[in-house]
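Marked as duplicate of an earlier ticket. Keeping the data here for the record.
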Amino acid sequence: MTVRSFALFDTPIGICGLTWSAAGICGLQLPEAEAAATRARLRRRWPEAQETVPPPGVQRAIARIRALLTGEAADLSDIPLDLAAVPEFHRRVYEVARTIPPGRTMTYGEIARRLDRPHESREVGRALGRNPIAIIVPCHRVLGAGGWMGGFSATGGVTTKRRILEIEGASALAAGPLFERPEGPHG
């Protein structure tokens, strides 16, 4: 059995939680309404994880997440991850998503094409909807065709997604409202 630990930490968007193992980060919980709810959500997902003081490598990851959420162009793509429990297709989707720099976006369809599965943008969306490491695997940077926001499984849904994109200065937000689903094919 993998030994996991977790810690809560304050950010400009609220109290987040990070779960890790010896192999790397395995979960990032975006804020709930209060810290106790964030902690409870982490414990439901990883019941064996113990709350503890993060080791230096995890502390550095937390500092970089905080920096990103204050508007710095922090690159999180080299933070080690533990994706052992994640299906192979999802890992491939997450690898592509991690190449999207802060302030930029990509569509579900673009990721599907990069994976040589051009007709599977919905599957890309499902994989991102199950992303256990939001922010580090920047699913918030993935939009539907025509700038449609798509979904976002964190508390606050697309409002949270839009807020994080605004913090990062995403150029796609200048195109106008991203809450409406466009007509026609998506992805």
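See parent ticket for discussion. DSSP finds six helices and six strands in the chain.
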